[in-house]
Task: inverse folding
């Protein structure tokens, strides 16, 4: 759930817009480069964007007795690296802001910063870290997607706490309040997103081995091992 | 029915089942019962929290277009999910078709080798052809 239209003071809204803009511009460049040098990846790019579209339309009930939705940005960040998700995530946010009155144009910068920038980078970083420890691919994918989802809403909580500090307990007090609304609600949803991302990645390893190898998700050696295991 | 379900399919089904359980459990356990309005959106709760923290805050901009009713809004959300699911399904459909086409072409070349070689056994032909191709073209 994103910050609603008009619910960030103008100065904050503008500041987050300025912070997010370079990432999105850089992402547009990365996206054009990717499409130009690997035209065959366009279809998988579309599928990554589509995954974000589906997941951010699914409002799910959570343990706190309220509803929120996953973001779906982890998959694309792992496949194509985070800059590309800065674009695909922002497109999703724009669609929701314009047609669904969900999120908003004035809060687009802040929402893009949390969902399309911090989420993908945190998720991608976690994915790389878990892989470096030698964990199986799917374990890394799960934690990557989980962190991408959860960190998005932690950032949302921080953004709101900075804009609306508590009169008594300051920013930290407000952070506890917004954190309990967004971040706690998000925990089971982040688990769901992790599992769904693993599911899609499993289908991709079955259907698009060549592409995943080119993108570096499957290494040549891993593919060979898998094939040998499959042949046995 | 003794349809053989592969281990892969079972794991995928299990993943979906857990996701469904995670979504249904909060409802089944009545975790929203302590609220006046159970299972509202987190964004609406945040708006309430903002009003509590800063009672004089007024949203300074309103959406350019707002769905006129909850029904229209849910239709638009369904449209968003359908668009995404459609593109995803298209992707996997194209991939599956391509793999089947490759497998068929492979089988054909295998038959041709068989017919020409005469004595060459099928297993030998089947094993030699994929190794000459890209690593992505394992027999399904």
Result:
């Amino acid at each position: 759930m994103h910050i609603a239209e008009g619910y960030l003071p103008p100065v904050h809204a503008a500041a987050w817009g300025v912070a997010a803009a370079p990432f999105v511009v850089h992402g547009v460049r990365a996206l054009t480069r990717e499409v130009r040098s690997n035209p065959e990846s366009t279809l998988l790019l579309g599928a990554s964007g589509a995954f974000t579209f589906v997941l951010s339309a699914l409002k799910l009930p959570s343990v706190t007795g309220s509803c929120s939705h996953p973001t779906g940005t982890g998959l694309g960040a792992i496949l194509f690296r985070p800059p590309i998700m800065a674009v695909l995530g922002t497109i999703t946010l724009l669609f929701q802001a314009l047609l669904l009155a969900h999120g908003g144009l004035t809060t687009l910068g802040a929402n893009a910063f949390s969902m399309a920038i911090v989420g993908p980078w945190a998720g991608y970083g976690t994915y790389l870290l878990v892989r470096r420890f030698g964990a199986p691919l799917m374990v890394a994918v799960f934690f990557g997607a989980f962190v991408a989802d959860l960190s998005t809403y932690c950032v949302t909580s921080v953004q709101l706490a900075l804009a609306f500090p508590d009169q008594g307990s300051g920013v930290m007090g407000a952070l506890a309040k917004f954190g309990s609304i967004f971040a706690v609600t998000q925990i089971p949803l982040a688990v769901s997103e992790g599992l769904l991302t693993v599911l899609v990645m499993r289908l991709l390893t079955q259907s698009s081995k060549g592409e995943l190898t080119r993108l570096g998700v499957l290494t040549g050696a891993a593919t060979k091992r898998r094939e040998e295991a499959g042949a046995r | 029915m003794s349809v053989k379900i592969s281990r892969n399919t079972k794991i995928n089904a299990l993943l979906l089942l857990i996701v469904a359980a995670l979504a249904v459990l909060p409802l089944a356990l009545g975790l929203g019962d302590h609220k006046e309005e159970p299972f509202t959106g987190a964004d609406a709760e945040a708006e309430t929290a903002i009003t509590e923290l800063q009672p004089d805050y007024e949203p300074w901009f309103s959406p350019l277009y707002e769905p006129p009713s909850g029904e229209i809004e849910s239709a638009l959300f369904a449209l968003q999910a359908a668009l995404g699911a459609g593109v995803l399904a298209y992707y996997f459909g194209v991939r599956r078709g391509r793999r089947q086409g490759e497998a068929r072409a492979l089988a054909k070349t295998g038959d041709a080798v068989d017919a020409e070689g005469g004595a060459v056994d099928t297993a030998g032909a089947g094993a030699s052809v994929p190794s000459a191709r890209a690593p992505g073209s394992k027999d399904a």
Notes: The first helix of chain A runs from residue 10 to 37.
